[in-house]
Amino acid sequence: MIHGSAEEFRLCVKDLLDAPCVQSMQRFTQHGDVSTLEHCLFVAFFSYLICHKFRWDFRAAARGGLLHDLFLYDWHTPHCCEGLHGFTHPRTALKNAQKYFVLTRQEENIILSHMWPLTLRALPRHRESIVVCCADKVCALLETFGYVRRLRRRESLRWILLLCRMAESQAGLSRAA
Ligand SMILES: [Fe+2]
Ligand SMILES: [Fe+2]
What we know:
Blueprint: H1 6-18, H2 20-23, E1 29-31, E2 34-35, H3 36-53, H4 58-67, H5 85-100, H6 105-112, H7 127-144, H8 147-151, H9 158-176
Antiparallel strand pairs: 1-2
This protein binds fe (ii) ion (FE2) (2 copies).
């Protein structure tokens, strides 16, 4: 049985998604041919579904998940950041997110700890942080090995809507059963 709905997910992140800084993530490549915005939506949506299922804070998971890679540069470009991207980008993403949005402590920890255990001292301190941390790794693998390509069409954001519709129709099927 699928918990949560695409509409509820959309409402959780609507104000963030409408913001130009979040939209600008569409310009940057994350893994393979997946943009950073698509990756963040992917992570946010699955984290939302998992937290909804366990009655955890699905709103924080969705919002923190969407902002977790708000570092706002192409990490494939040489000298794109100070230090090593893998270690430094959670703090950059957090600084950017704090600049544009009011975050809860939980959302801050989700962003800061999503690369754990690489960032050893930035521990996931909430269940939702652990969910986003794991969803990020699974999504990164799926994207790198091309599985996401099969799920979405070329236009950005259409594939997440497809995922949302799939979740809705499965919820409908399980209600009808
Ligand atoms: Fe990241
Ligand atoms: Fe990520």
